[in-house]
Amino acid sequence: MAEYVDLHCHSTASDGTLPPAEVVRLARQSGLSGLALTDHDTIGGVEEAAAEAGRLGVTFLAGIEISCEYPPPGTMHILGYGVDPKSETLRDLTRRLLEGRDNRNPRIIQKLNELGVSITMREVEQEAKATAGENKKPIGRPHIAAVLLRKGYVSSIKQAFDKYLAQGGAAYFDKERLTMREAMDLIRQSGGMPVLAHPVQLRTENDAQLERVVKDLVDLGLVGLEVIHSDHDASLVEKHIKLADRYRLLKTGGSDFHGTNKKDISLGTANGRRIPREFMDALLKRHAELRRAG
Predict the structure, then answer these.
(1) Cα-flanking dihedrals φ and ψ of residue 67, to 5°?
(2) CA 163/CA 180 separation, integer angstroms
(3) CB 272 within 8 Å of CB 253
(4) Contact at 8 Å (CB) between 46 and 62?
(5) What is the pLDDT of residues 180-205, one digit of tens each?
(6) Domain limits of the chain?
(7) How does residue 261 score in pLDDT terms, banded at 50, 70 and 90?
(8) Which residues lie below 8 Å from residue 160, measured CB to CB, with a gap of 6+?
(9) Which of 144, 196, 267, 289 is deepest in the core (most CB within 10 A)?
(10) Please, what's the b/e burial string for 249-284 (b: 16 or more CB within 10 A of its CB; e: otherwise)?
């Protein structure tokens, strides 16, 4: 009997709407045998998710998703699989990235206020259910979007991003991002394996440009390519599988589940496709090999 997994999903530790343990329970209810939690810029939900996965018998892989510098209109995200949540390198990184978000959020709120949108940082913090100290959950644009929706300034989360919060939006400010090299090095130093997320979001002009980007990443130590994703149609999946094979990269896949922040995406399903268990098994095997090699 075929088994399926999801290697790209988010919890309330970043910008999802389900707590980490609930994401794992949903995975089990959805018939998944394995899961990787890949919250943005934080491993704050990994411990809770791992404990629940152990209780339910779901194979679990600790992960993180890091934003990198990349020319607009495209974006580059690197997934780090198998990172050590106790790594001081990783803790320092996530603290730095969290501070970057904290510096950006008030600027967005101020700009919204100037545009006649009456929301406060306190409302956004309450929306994110933020807690004090080092374990504070990252507060990001989805939380601001949720407040805009709740207060009637927009009719959907998507409209909040399109009108105000996405690149080109009236209140958009960028956050601190790592270079490709920094992100890859930090993931490896934390015991993880770097994988390029949703390559379609690079928005490369043609296949040749996409291949150049992937080759540059391979030279920096890229281990895998996310070939199945909710933004990838059948033709893109086929193209990315061929690209991964060409550079001997592991193939991964995930829904990019965020709960009700992305209502059209279900855990374990990416644009009508399911992610085969062998993708996760290959990651686990490579991770074990890297650990043995020291």
Answers:
(1) -85, 140
(2) 29
(3) no
(4) yes
(5) 999 999 999 999 999 999 999 999 99
(6) 4-94+192-293
(7) confident
(8) 144, 145, 148, 149, 153, 154
(9) 196
(10) bbbbbbbbbbbebbeebebbbbbebbbbbebbeebe
And the tokens for 148?
Answer: 């805009």
Cis preceding-peptide flag for 85 (omega within 30 of 0): no
Fold assignment, 4-94+192-293: TIM Barrel (3.20.20)
Tokens 């050590």 belong to which residue?
A: 84
b/e map of 169-181 (b: 16 or more CB within 10 Å)? bebbeebebbebe
C-alpha triplet 282, 236, 226: angle, nearest 5°:
30
Q: Is the pTM of this model over 0.85?
A: yes
| Residues 7-24: b if buried by 16+ CB within 10 A, e if exposed | bbbbbbbbbbbbbbbbbb
pLDDT > 80? residue 249? yes
Complete DSSP assignment for the chain: ---EEE--B--TTTT-SS-HHHHHHHHHHTTEEEEEE--BT--TTHHHHHHHHHHHT-EEEEEEEEEE---TT--EEEEEES--TT-HHHHHHHHHHHHHHHHHHHHHHHHHHHTT----HHHHHHHHT--SSTTPPP--HHHHHHHHHHTTS-SSHHHHIIIIISTTSTT------B-HHHHHHHHHHTT-EEEE--GGGG--SSHHHHHHHHHHHHHTT--EEEEEETT--HHHHHHHHHHHHHTTPEEEEE--B-GGGGTT--TTEETTEEEEHHHHHHHHHHHHHHHHH-
The answer to whether 4 and 250 have CB atoms below 8 angstroms apart is: no
